[in-house]
């Protein structure tokens, strides 16, 4: 009886070890982790990274403005949408006519080449009649941080 119980335990442990081994092999194969490539002698620079070093914040803002202008849903709302960028981190502030449009503004910023991050916590899908808070200034029909640049769409 004792020997029979032991063989069942050995069988379970062996099965568990094999399952874990197969899982790890599958993970390595899927992610190519653990595979070492020998250098070919020529290094390929990361073009997106190199191009982004020369991309200015003004170029990023201009690209996002063009995306907004191309979307007719934002016609008539340009005075209350502000897009600014510092060190390729974009801030979108203001208000638009609905949550879908607010989400699309964030998507425009996130999908713009060379953008490292997007801040949109003060983007609203409604108009607020409250004035600007402390540390803010007026920018068109919305409020932005005192240190932010007012970049209304022209």
Description of the molecule:
There is one protein chain. This protein has about 150 residues and is α/β, with parallel strands linked by helices. Helix content is about 40%, strand content about 15%. The chain is built from four helices and six strands; from the N terminus they run αααββαββββ. It has helices spanning about 1-30, 45-55, 55-70, 100-110, and strands spanning about 80-85, 90-95, 115-120, 125, 135-140, 140-145. Strands 1, 2, 3 and 4 form a four-stranded mixed beta sheet that branches. The longest helix has 30 residues, at about 1-30. It is elongated.
Chain-wise SSE layout:
Blueprint: H1 2-31, H2 47-54, H3 57-70, E1 81-86, E2 89-95, H4 99-110, E3 117-119, E4 123-124, E5 136-139, E6 142-145
What's the quick description here?
The protein has 154 residues and is an alpha/beta fold.
How many strand elements? 6
Q: How many distinct helices?
A: 4
Low-confidence stretches: 31-47
Measured by DSSP, the beta-strand proportion falls in 15-25%
What are the secondary-structure elements, in order, as H or E?
HHHEEHEEEE
- Distance between termini? 86 Å
Helix- and strand-based class?
A: alpha/beta
Instruction: Indicate the overall shape.
Output: elongated
Tell me about the biggest sheet?
4 strands, mixed
Mean pLDDT comes to 78
Radius of gyration: 27 Å
Helicity range of the residues? 40-55%
């Amino acid at each position: 009886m004792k020997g029979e119980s032991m063989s069942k335990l050995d069988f379970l442990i062996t099965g568990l070890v094999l399952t874990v081994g197969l899982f790890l092999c599958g993970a390595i194969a899927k992610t190519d982790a653990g595979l070492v490539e020998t250098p070919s002698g020529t290094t390929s620079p990361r073009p997106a990274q190199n191009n982004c070093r020369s991309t200015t914040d003004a170029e990023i803002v201009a690209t996002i403005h063009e995306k907004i202008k191309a979307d007719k849903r934002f016609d008539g709302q340009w005075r209350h949408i502000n897009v600014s960028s510092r060190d390729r981190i974009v801030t979108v502030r203001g208000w638009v006519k609905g949550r879908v449009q607010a989400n699309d503004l964030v998507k425009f910023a996130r999908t713009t080449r060379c953008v490292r991050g997007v801040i949109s916590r003060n983007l609203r899908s409604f108009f607020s009649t409250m004035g600007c808070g402390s540390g803010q200034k007026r920018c068109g029909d919305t409020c932005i941080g005192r240190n932010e640049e007012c970049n209304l769409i022209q």
